[in-house]
Design brief:
Elements (H helix, E strand, L loop, with lengths): L1 E9 L2 H35 L7 H15 L9 H18 L17 E4 L12 E3 L2 E4 L3 E5 L8 E10 L2 E9 L12 E6 L5 E3 L4 E2 L4 H4 L1 H12 L6 H35 L2 E5 L3 H5 L5 H7 L1 H14 L3 E5 L25 E3 L6 E3 H20 L21 E3 L2 E3 L2
Parallel strand pairs: 8-11, 11-12
Antiparallel strand pairs: 1-5, 1-7, 2-6, 3-4, 4-5, 6-7, 8-9, 9-10, 13-14, 15-16
Amino acid sequence: MRLAHKIVLDPTPEQEIYFARASGVARFAWNWALDRWQQEYALWKEYKCGPRPSEVSLRSALNAIKDDAFPWMLEVMKNAPQQAIKNLGAAFKNFFEGRAKYPKFKKKGVARDSFRADPGTDKAHPNAVQVDGKRIKLPVIGWIKMREAVRFVGNIKSAIVSRIADRWFVSLSVEVDHVPPVRETQAVGGVDLGVKALATLSDGTVIEGPKALRRRLKILRRRSRAHSRKAKGSANRRKSAMRLARLHARIANVRQDALHKATTEIVRKFSVIGIEDLNVRGMMANHSLALAIADIGAFEFRRQLDYKASMHAASVAVADRWFPSSRMCSDCKHIHTGLTLADREWACEACGSVHDRDGNASLNLRDFAASSAVTACGADRTGLALAGKVKRAAVKQEPTHGIFVHV
């Protein structure tokens, strides 16, 4: 299993300059390769002859001309431009397979600066990336201080140096020998993501969200207005941009911390976890909900839950987007068709049970997860018509007046 650990670096001024130069070389290689790709693809499309552009041919072309055309590229590790072109090839593959948008040119100061250093790619430095406590050794630049030691023991497969605001980070991909732990509990649970609370669990636990963006929205708007009034190219504008970037990083860190704590608690508590697909794009179309939905971090929650479940010998059962988790009575399974988004509590017309909206949804997701676990073991599927499917999909949606919202 490969695990990643992102650590704050504490570089010297000279090392920061080298990081900036290496990131600039990687950005230039990306833009150069993207321009060549577009030119070669246009010729191939017009004349229908010759090979189509590829990242392999572009890397070879850059290696052939960089000594004469771009000698400053030799001042940084050779893996920085090569890996940037590999990333462009992966970006085009995702585009042609429908998983991403068309790659764009990168601009200095807009896109996140980063470059990659892989151990063992340079024959002259077979152990180019080394870790010794709170230090890391990268090719060419040497030893750099880290704020903490690596948490995993294993072979380092890659190191990506990136900058967020005014801080540099290194993300280490470590291959470890992982043996799933023996679980003390085999409990089945449901998790309902919401706007009022980050998550409501089927055992009654309510995990409050930090609302990182909403709580800092006033100062964010004030700093954005102040930044827009600074003269372009001035020192004051650069300082203002850095203050704004630090605030955005703070908001992201607060949200990320809350998501990590919540997902870790869930996978430790339940061995089978029932969740629902969320139509995030549809819900973002509702401008009354867009800010609150964006502040949840639903995609990141799902991503963390998936990889942590595999680490803790747990499984995730995903109900499709049409599963009526909120509208179905968790006691008698009667579906309440008149439920609106404003109804936080409702009484079942069939059995008279009074339900909290989020708590009822989590109980239905728990029952769905339990039935999915039983089905996976070969049991009868009778009575599971409403259960949906266990699959990995992107979103859940339910239409309300032409706008998709979470119900």
